[in-house]
Amino acid sequence: MRNIMVTGGAGFIGSNLVRHLILNHPDYNIINVDALTYAGNLANLADIESNPAYRFVKADICDAQAISDIISRYNIDGIIHLAAETHVDRSIVDPLAFARTNMIGTLTLLNCAKDYWEKLPEGYNGKLFYHISTDEVYGSLLHDDPPFTEQTPYTPHSPYSASKAGSDHLVRAYHDTYGMPTLITNCSNNYGPYQFPEKLLPLVINNVRLHRPIPVYGKGDNVRDWLFVEDHARAIDLIFHKGKPGDTYNIGGNCEQRNIDIIRKVVATTDRLLGNPPGYSDSLITFVTDRKGHDLRYAINASKLTRQLGWKPLTSFDEGIERTVAWYLDNRQWLDNVTSGAYTEYYDKMYGRPTTTPQ
Ligand code: NAD
Ligand code: DAU
Fold first, then answer.
1. Nearest to 117 by CA among 68, 62, 168, 59
2. Is residue 85 among the annotated active site residues?
3. Per-residue pLDDT tens for 34-82?
4. Residue 311 needs a FRET pair 20 to 30 A away by CA distance; which of 72, 214, 269, 339 works?
5. Distance from Cα 280 to the centre of ligand 2, integer Å
6. Among this protein's residues, is 280 annotated catalytic?
7. Whether residue 160 lies in the annotated active site
8. Are the CB atoms for 161 and 134 separated by under 8 Å?
9. Which of 54, 124, 138, 160 is catalytic?
């Protein structure tokens, strides 16, 4: 058995990844470490929570004592680190929360792993610290620029992307200074089930079903590169097992879309699956003041990952959008719970008061 710690496993990508690992690696124990901020929801893992290979531990990655205890108690062999503050708009309002979790939290985790692994008879042998990062660290592209490669210099613009860039640098520093086996991946925009509905796609679906305005920032001509979350989980699994320690890999969907185009597609798909006539919700689309410092375009060149490890996305954009809209409409109670905050009552009962964004 290998004991793998996944941080942020109660969030969007984390819960999809934990499910993927539990279903595909029966020889692993998965220890999900999550502070259960507003973005963490144990209901995301209700279907696997009774699996004997799964454990949940509520802890803040900035709490060195708690993290050290977990690493030694479970004799952790590998860490896949997703816990983070992740919403760009929130980072514009509360940048310190992002510096704390994304930089201090990552540093705390690195240091606790180093202290534990260095003292083992086998040292770092067989150990791995895998940090999940974002394409936003590379900054913003113009419409005719080539996509980001692993060599693109870091030029983050938002407090969120700056804090993720900082965390990437810290991970590299632990590899270069202490010889810790590390991996970093920088992925493009994910979409799919269990995404908190402050992010664009679930927000649009939720607003169509509730017949609320759909805010389009600026002119809607910003471009993102979209990847279905299960394809990201597969990429993480592959890189965790086959990636070269010390290396960085880009992950992307090769699927660039203007915001206004993806919004129109999601609105039309949601209307169709709700049984509304074509065009029924188009008037909800509302152009609003642009996000401050809004990055124009992200696009990922993932050819290194395809060339070296053979990964490519398996879910087409059309299929991914169809499955995503259908999932949210089939899980309206989940949407209602996370938007009303009712899901925190579950934590109150099981783990005491929920942790909000730590101050
Ligand atoms: P999310 O916001 O849905 O989930 C984040 C999780 O981290 C939540 O469960 C939350 O409770 C937990 N968390 C937050 N602060 C914590 C702390 N101090 N201690 C312990 N747990 C804490 O995020 P997501 O969209 O699933 O993103 C996961 C990771 O992937 C992040 O590191 C993000 O930067 C990266 N990423 C996301 C995307 C995307 O499109 N969503 C793309 C590329 C990379
Ligand atoms: O690129 C990877 C990143 O993708 C991740 O690292 C982030 O954690 C994740 O949140 C995402 O960042 P974005 O800022 O691209 O995602 P968001 O869903 O917030 O917005 C997508 C685009 O849609 C962006 O150009 C802003 C725009 N937008 C967003 C919202 C919430 C709107 O026009 N209206 C909205 O209401």
1. 68
2. no
3. 999 999 999 999 999 999 999 999 999 999 999 999 999 999 999 999 9
4. 269
5. 25
6. no
7. yes
8. yes
9. 160
Between CA 31 and CA 126 the distance in angstroms is 18
134 ligand 2 Cβ < 6 A: yes
How many Å apart are CA 168 and CA 110, to the nearest integer? 11
Residue 218 lies in a domain: no
Residue 352 has pLDDT above 80, yes or no: no
Confidence of residue 355 (pLDDT cuts 50, 70, 90): very low
Residue-range definition of the domain harbouring residue 143: 2-191+227-255+298-315+343-351
CA of 273 to the centre of ligand 2 (A): 24
- Residues in contact with ligand 1 (CB, 6 Å cut-off): 7-8, 10-14, 34-37, 39-40, 60-62, 82-86, 101, 105, 132, 134, 164, 187, 189-190, 196, 358
Does the residue 261 lie in any domain? no
CA distance 126 to 294: 41
Torsions phi, psi of 16, nearest 5? -65, -35
Question: Ligand 2 pocket, 86 CB below 6 A?
Answer: yes
Q: Domain holding 131: CATH number? A: 3.40.50.720
Tens digits of per-residue pLDDT, 233-243? Answer: 999 999 999 99
Beta-carbon count within 10 A of 149 CB: 13
Nearest protein CA to atom 41 of ligand 1, as residue: 190
* Domains held by the chain: number: 1
- For ligand 1, atom 29, name the residue with the nearest CA: 82
In a domain, 266, yes or no: no
Within a 13 Å sphere around the CA of 220, how many CA atoms are in the beta-carbon half? 14
Q: Indicate whether 338 belongs to any domain.
A: no
φ, ψ (nearest 5 deg) of residue 90: -65, -35
CB proximity list for 209: less than 8 A, separation 6 or greater: 270, 274, 328, 329, 332, 335
* pLDDT tens, residue by residue, 92-123: 999 999 999 999 999 999 999 999 999 999 99
